[in-house]
Amino acid sequence: MTIEKCINEFDVDDVIFEEGSTGRELFVVLDGKVEIAKMNGASKTVIVTLGKGEFFGEMAVIDGSSRSATAIAAAPNTRVMRINHARFVYLVSQQPAFALMIMDALSKRLRASNTVAFRAAGGS
């Protein structure tokens, strides 16, 4: 598959994937911005906004579970590259630095999530 077939372009408010959907792809932001959000009817709570060079969708590509949030383009001409499960496994096996980058990001995101959950539960 050529690299061009792995790149998609989105406009503002275009949904890249929805919470609860299945998918075995990781996405890398090439241009623009992507909001990762929880939806509650018409209400949207943005968890994080990602920019060029950042990635999302790593949980589903790793464990095959459904998407935990919705990804929405937040800038005109937002371009993302899709990395499917087979390519992801290849990159992890051939590029240890790539695997460490994914683990580092997962760790930071889990710590941030734990902090939010702790505060919501009435912690300090």
Automatic annotation (TrEMBL):
InterPro entries: cNMP-bd_CS (IPR018488), cNMP-bd_dom (IPR000595), cNMP-bd_dom_sf (IPR018490), Env_Response_Regulators (IPR050397), RmlC-like_jellyroll (IPR014710). PANTHER family: CRP FAMILY TRANSCRIPTIONAL REGULATORY PROTEIN (PTHR24567), HTH-TYPE TRANSCRIPTIONAL REGULATOR ARCR (PTHR24567:SF74). It comes from Bradyrhizobium australiense. SUPFAM superfamilies: cAMP-binding domain-like. Residues 10-109 form the Cyclic nucleotide-binding domain. GO terms for cellular component: cytosol. This is Cyclic nucleotide-binding domain-containing protein. CDD domains: CAP_ED. One of its GO terms (molecular function) is DNA-binding transcription factor activity. It comes from the Bacteria.
